[in-house]
Specification:
This is Glycosyl transferase family 28 C-terminal domain-containing protein. The strands form three sheets. Strands 3-2-1-4-5-6-7 form a seven-stranded parallel sheet, sandwiched between helices. Strands 12-10-8-13-14 form a five-stranded parallel sheet, sandwiched between helices. The chain has a two-stranded parallel ribbon with strand order 9-11. The chain contains nine helices and 14 strands. It is of the alpha/beta class and 299 residues long.
Length: 299
C-alpha cells in the first residue's frame, strides 16, 4: 500500500541564492525576505555577505565561493566542451564544488519549501535535481539558450522585476503562465525635494548639475571621459557617485567632484539636471522614475 504524500510543515524554511555582482540582486532579496511570514526561516547563499540591506530576524547568510570568479586553485580541464545545457560550468573548480555541495547539503538537512534563485541557471537546475522547488528570477536579455531554458522550464514559478508591458517577445505562453511581474521590486524610487537635496549636497539652487551614476555591477566608468565631459560643460557641476575607474592619464577640471559610494543617492538624483548612468536594473528604475534627462551607458 502506497503511503500518502507528506505535507510540508508550516515553518519549512526558504532558501535564497543571490548573485553578488552589483547591488540590485541583494536589494531585491531583502525586499522579498522582509515580506515573507516571520515564522519562515530563510537561508541566503551568496559569495558576499556585506551587500545586503537590513533584514528581519530569522535570516541566515551563508557565504559560498563565487561560481564564476577563479581563485587560482583551479586545475584547468578544458578537454571537454561545455554542454549546451549548462551556462557556466567549467571543470576543475574546487570553489564551484564547495558552493554547490554546501547548498546540496542544506537541501538534504533543512528540507526546504523552496529556493528563490536570483540568478544562476546552474543553481536553479541543482535545486530541481535535488527535488527542491525553485522560483527563478527572469531578467531581460538573450537567455534562450538550453541552459537558461532548462532553469525556466523546471521552475515552479518565474519572477520578473519589471512591469508586464516590458515582457520580451521570446517569453512564450508557458513561461508567462507561471510568471509574476513585479515592477519596482526592491527599489525605493521616492525622491526628496530638489532644493532640500541640493542643500544637503552643499550645491547652490541655481547650479546646473550633471550626475554621473555608476552602479556596482560593472567595472566602473573610466575617469578620463568624465573629465572630458566636465571640460566641455565648464558651467555645470559634475558629480560622480559609485565606482569610478581612475585613469592614470586623466587630468580633472575644477568643476568635477567625486563623492564615491554614498548612502543618500536619492539626494543626488533629485538634485541633478542631467544624469549619466549605467544600465543595471536598479539604476534604470531610479533614473526612469525621476524623469530626468538621461544619457544611458550600458556596460
Amino acid at each position: 500500500m502506497t503511503a500518502p504524500p507528506r505535507a510540508l510543515t508550516p515553518a519549512a524554511p526558504i532558501g535564497y541564492f543571490v548573485h553578488h555582482q552589483g547591488r540590485g540582486h541583494a536589494e531585491r532579496c531583502a525586499a522579498i525576505v522582509n515580506a515573507l511570514p516571520a515564522h519562515r526561516p530563510v537561508t541566503i547563499f551568496c559569495a558576499r555577505g556585506d551587500i545586503f540591506p537590513r533584514m528581519r530576524a530569522g535570516v541566515d547568510i551563508v557565504v559560498i565561493p563565487s561560481l564564476f570568479e577563479p581563485t587560482g586553485a583551479e586545475v584547468v580541464q578544458d578537454f571537454t566542451a561545455q554542454p549546451d545545457t549548462l551556462h557556466c560550468a567549467p571543470l576543475g573548480w574546487p570553489g564551484i564544488r564547495q558552493a554547490m555541495g554546501t547548498m546540496a547539503a542544506w537541501f538534504m538537512t533543512a528540507d526546504p519549501a523552496l529556493i528563490i534563485c536570483d540568478v544562476s541557471a546552474e543553481v536553479a537546475q541543482l535545486a530541481r535535481i535535488c527535488s527542491v522547488p525553485h522560483v527563478k528570477v527572469l531578467q531581460h536579455g538573450q537567455r534562450s539558450d538550453p541552459g537558461h531554458r532548462a532553469a525556466y522550464d523546471g521552475a515552479a514559478g518565474l519572477l520578473v522585476p519589471s512591469a508586464a508591458c516590458l515582457a520580451q517577445d521570446d517569453w512564450d505562453d508557458g513561461m508567462r503562465a507561471k510568471t509574476c511581474f513585479a515592477g519596482g521590486l526592491g527599489v525605493d524610487t521616492a525622491l526628496p525635494d530638489r532644493d532640500a537635496a541640493r542643500g544637503r549636497l552643499n550645491v547652490a539652487a541655481d547650479q546646473d548639475i550633471v550626475l554621473v551614476l555608476s552602479g556596482g555591477g560593472g567595472s566602473g566608468f573610466p575617469s578620463a571621459p568624465i573629465a572630458v565631459g566636465a571640460r566641455a560643460l565648464p558651467d555645470s557641476l559634475w558629480l560622480t557617485v559609485g565606482k569610478i575607474a581612475r585613469d592614470w592619464h586623466a587630468t580633472e577640471p575644477a568643476n568635477l567632484r567625486h563623492d564615491g559610494w554614498v548612502d543618500n543617492v536619492a539626494d543626488y538624483i533629485a538634485a541633478a539636471d542631467c544624469i549619466v548612468a549605467s544600465t543595471g536594473n536598479t539604476t534604470c528604475q531610479h533614473v526612469l522614475a525621476a524623469g530626468k534627462v538621461w544619457v544611458a551607458v550600458p556596460e
